[in-house]
Amino acid sequence: MPPIISEEKCVKCGLCAQICPLDVIKVEQKRIIVKYPDECWHCRACAIDCPKQAITMRYPLSHMMLHVDVPTKTKEE
Amino acid sequence: MMTMKMREDIIKCDFLIVGGGIAGMQAAITGSALGMDVVVAEKADTRRSGSGATGNDHFICYIPEYHGDDFEEILREISETLVGPWQDKDLLSLMMKRSQEVIELWESYGINMRPTGKWNFEGHSMPGRRRYHLKYDGHDQKPLLTKQALKNGCRILNKTTVNELLTDDTGRVVGAIGVNIANDEPELVVFQAKAVLVCTGHSVRIYPGMNPAYPFNASNCPADTGSGIAMGFRAGARLVNLDIPYVHAGPSMFQRCGKATWIGVLTDYYGKPVGPFVTKPTRELGDVTADIWQTVFREKCRTVQDQYL
Q1: Is B188 inside a domain boundary?
Q2: pLDDT, greater one: B41 or B270
Q3: B234 in contact with A at a CB cutoff of 8 Å?
Q4: What are the residues whose beta carbons fall under 8 Å from the beta carbon of B113, sequence distance 6 or more?
Q5: Which CATH number characterizes residue A18's domain?
Q6: pLDDT per residue over A3-52, tens digit each?
Q7: Domain range holding B36?
């Protein structure tokens, strides 16, 4: 499923469009869009590299079903 | 109708590398360190392209200081786990002999191969045997390989897909034709090189996946379409090892990622451990049952279906 690019946070630097390994993101005149949403591999390169943290991922239901947030603190902490 | 312009100058070099994944970038770094004039043509961007995209965390290797000196026994043990049976033995032997060299190079590029401070081998292991999967911090492997290649003077042409190799009258490869897709109007690019290395990775999209919940049909980069192998074939290359498939085992209807290095106990429909190796989840061993019994998922599901029929 395509990642979401926040229009408020995006400064249109174009890095996401440049580095996407499947070239699914495109810089249009007014904004940056995920032009080929079905080709998203969910590698998160765009979300990781965005200098403004403007991108959030979305995953298909099958990826979400077994997803568990691993706690960052132990019980003792 | 789409128009295409043509780049006026021919890009000339000693060594043209088609594909800027981990293999291509390593070849670029090594070639340039040996004094060659190197060009990498990569259809995405070498900082995140290919199966190495957003990182790797383990590397199968042989470290004499850790594993000992009996290389033949070690090769045998490695062949008995994971996709060991599906290997070209000569390539496996070569890879294992030189893996320490690769680790030292990667450390020199700033890739942290020892995040805990010592060699950490975990997963895919039989209890009591040596372990071969080195756990490392490769989250920035592609950016660091890119940085080293640029430092060595490599020219990287991103957003440039190579489509055809060029040969002369004797059949010798002399260059390639590619397309720069950086802008709305594509640009044809011609390369001339003394040698060409095709490093385009796996062939992932040959057929659609069977499972609707399994995007594409593999966990490797879906942009790895096998076009490099096809263009080599068209240029007259002899293809080898096409009879050795890229195999994985995993539960049906789910993304395969997570089978490879996972911590758990493989159990059947009734909750009973299927393999003899672990009874509790351990990070040191994983559960190697599915690595060596590659039809386990199919056979265990069939058993349950038989029961109901």
Answers
A1: yes
A2: B41
A3: no
A4: B59, B103, B106, B107, B134, B136, B137
A5: 3.30.70.20
A6: 999 999 999 999 999 999 999 999 999 899 999 998 999 999 999 999 99
A7: 5-198
Mean pLDDT of B251-276: 71
Per the CB < 8 A criterion, the answer to whether A20 and A3 are in contact is: no
**Confidence band for B268, pLDDT divided at 50, 70 and 90:** confident
B54/A43 Cβ within 8 A: yes
Residues in chain A with CB shorter than 8 Å from the CB of B48 are: 19-21, 43, 45, 49
pLDDT at residue B23, as a whole number: 96
Contact A62 B159 (CB under 8 A): no
Contact B254/A at CB under 8 A: yes
Q: What would the mean pLDDT of B185-195 be, rounded to a whole number? A: 97
Torsion angle in degrees (nearest 10) through CA of B276, B279, B282, B285: 0
Instruction: State the amino acid at position B63 in one-letter form.
Output: I
User: Is the same domain home to B190 and B288?
Assistant: no
Q: Does B215 touch chain A (CB under 8 A)?
A: yes
Interchain proximity A45–B54, CB inside 8 Å? yes
Residue A75 lies inside a defined structural domain of this protein: no
- Which residue in the block uniquely carries the two structure tokens 């990826």? A63
